[in-house]
């Protein structure tokens, strides 16, 4: 019988997770329905231009999930599960510094990294790790209690991890084992029915609702599962019209007449979900927790390092202008700033090196006897090459923190007089015993591969058209150990 390849495991896992989450959070099903409606309307209105950043079939199937774990060992086990699905850790996000409220986590995103794998199924899981070593949030006594609690739980059963390791090593599984793996993997992310220790949960919640969601329960769960939509502003209006309470804003770049870049996100507010609560005297009572919400995203073009620096500068400019004119809507100010400082066309983004594209020689190149120039902007303007935008496959820490913050019931506490613990991408790579990949390198590699083909076809190999990209380490990762906290 035919074995099940990794991408099929990934697609099946994403679909089953979506069905499971829809049963747990019915408003998510509404979100998916409205996303489909909006996407179909956009396709009818814009035609093929609507699929400039991905076919409708890809956009419709696209999801990103979000989970939270408590220790490097738990993160390493999650990495093994995602490795079975052909997903690698990409990017380091420090949400501690990106939010005004207490969000004591650092994060990475597990996703496919090769273009063909992304085209088959671009499932991603934004995975956050608690930072109990950060004294701004946790004093020594609470840190010790928290780490003891986390050390005593099991998020992923050994059988799941064994099957995951086999799938990662062989890049496929026999059908029976594939089915068992999928059942166990989806089950690992279901909301547990085990009673929550109310006193312990409230202790952590006073520090951070995110910390309580991670360290106050004995399991992990999907916090949100995010569909992709082609017009997030239309979706926001339609969800509100259906009586779904949305957060106050759409996070990320503003809506404006130029190219969509990076990522825009919004969500409906976290819902009160019934949970059994264990009281100090040992009884079990009905309670409710607000930790899960319904996020949706619209993806744009991946920016280069230079483009991202420009984006960050513009966000800072919007912040300053908003502070100077608090009576004006931030969205209005942001749109004004974008129109003043960002190129209005894809061609200009490419020519100025601000965004990533793949390039191909034109089907109808100039026939005036001139030689092609060794400059991408000139090649585009004169019709020698055509550019296809690369979709931004990753995340924005400020936007992620903004979504988290918008769904918190309290700001929590953070002692800014204390020095932050040092967590960074290098530390996270060590914790995983696997390189956390730099997303810019992945985009640069894909772009440069296309430029190399263009340079060869046009006789431009000896020019500076293609810049070298540093190699990443091999794709293989060792099983994670138990590194010390910083």
From TrEMBL:
InterPro entries: HGLS, YdcJ_bac-like. Its EC number is 1.13.11.93. It is an enzyme of class 1 (oxidoreductase). Keywords: Dioxygenase, Iron, Oxidoreductase. GO terms for molecular function: dioxygenase activity. CDD domains: VOC_YdcJ_like (cd16348). Its cofactor is Fe(2+). It holds the Pfam family HGLS. PANTHER family: 2-OXOADIPATE DIOXYGENASE_DECARBOXYLASE, PTHR39479. Belongs to the 2-oxoadipate dioxygenase/decarboxylase family. This is 2-oxoadipate dioxygenase/decarboxylase.
């Amino acid at each position: 019988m035919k074995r099940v390849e990794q991408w099929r495991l990934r697609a099946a896992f994403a679909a089953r997770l979506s069905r499971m989450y829809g049963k747990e959070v019915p408003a998510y099903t509404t979100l998916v329905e409205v996303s489909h409606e909006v996407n179909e309307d956009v396709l009818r209105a814009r035609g093929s231009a609507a699929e400039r950043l991905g076919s409708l079939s890809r956009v419709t199937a696209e999801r990103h999930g979000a989970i939270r774990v408590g220790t490097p060992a738990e993160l390493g086990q999650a990495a093994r599960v995602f490795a079975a699905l052909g997903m690698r850790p990409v990017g380091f996000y420090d949400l501690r510094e990106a939010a005004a409220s207490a969000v004591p986590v650092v994060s990475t995103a597990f996703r496919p990294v090769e273009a063909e794998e992304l085209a088959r199924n671009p499932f991603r899981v934004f995975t956050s790790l608690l930072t109990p070593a950060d004294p701004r949030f946790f004093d020594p006594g609470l840190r010790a209690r928290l780490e003891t609690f986390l050390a005593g739980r099991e998020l992923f059963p050994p059988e799941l991890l064994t099957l995951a390791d086999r799938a990662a090593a062989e890049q496929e599984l026999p059908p029976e084992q594939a089915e068992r793996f999928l059942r166990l993997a989806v089950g690992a992310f279901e909301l547990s029915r085990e009673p929550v220790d109310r006193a312990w949960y409230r202790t952590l919640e006073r520090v951070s609702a995110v910390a309580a969601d991670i360290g106050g329960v004995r399991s992990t769960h999907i916090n949100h599962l995010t569909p992709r939509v082609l017009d997030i502003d239309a979706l926001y209006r339609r969800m509100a019209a259906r009586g779904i309470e949305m957060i106050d804003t759409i996070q990320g770049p503003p809506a404006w007449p130029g190219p969509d870049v990076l990522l825009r996100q919004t969500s409906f507010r976290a819902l009160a979900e019934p949970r059994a609560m264990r009281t100090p005297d040992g009884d079990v009572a009905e309670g409710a927790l607000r930790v899960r919400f319904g996020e949706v995203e619209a993806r744009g073009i991946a920016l280069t390092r230079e483009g991202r620096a420009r984006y960050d500068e513009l966000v800072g400019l919007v912040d300053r202008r908003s502070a100077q004119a608090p009576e004006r809507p931030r969205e209005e100010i942001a749109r004004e700033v974008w129109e003043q400082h960002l190129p209005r066309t894809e061609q200009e983004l490419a020519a100025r090196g601000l965004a990533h594209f793949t390039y191909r020689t034109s089907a109808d190149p100039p026939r005036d006897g001139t030689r092609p120039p060794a400059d991408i902007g000139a090649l585009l303007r004169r019709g020698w090459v055509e550019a296809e935008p690369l979709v931004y496959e990753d995340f924005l820490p400020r936007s992620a923190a903004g979504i988290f913050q918008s769904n918190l019931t309290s700001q929590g506490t953070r002692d800014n007089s204390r020095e932050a613990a040092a967590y960074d991408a290098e530390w996270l790579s060590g914790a995983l015993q696997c390189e956390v990949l730099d997303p810019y390198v992945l985009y640069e590699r894909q772009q440069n591969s296309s430029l190399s083909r263009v340079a060869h076809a046009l006789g431009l190999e000896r020019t500076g058209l293609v810049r070298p990209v540093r190699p990443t380490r091999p794709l293989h990762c060792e099983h994670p150990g138990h590194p010390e906290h910083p």
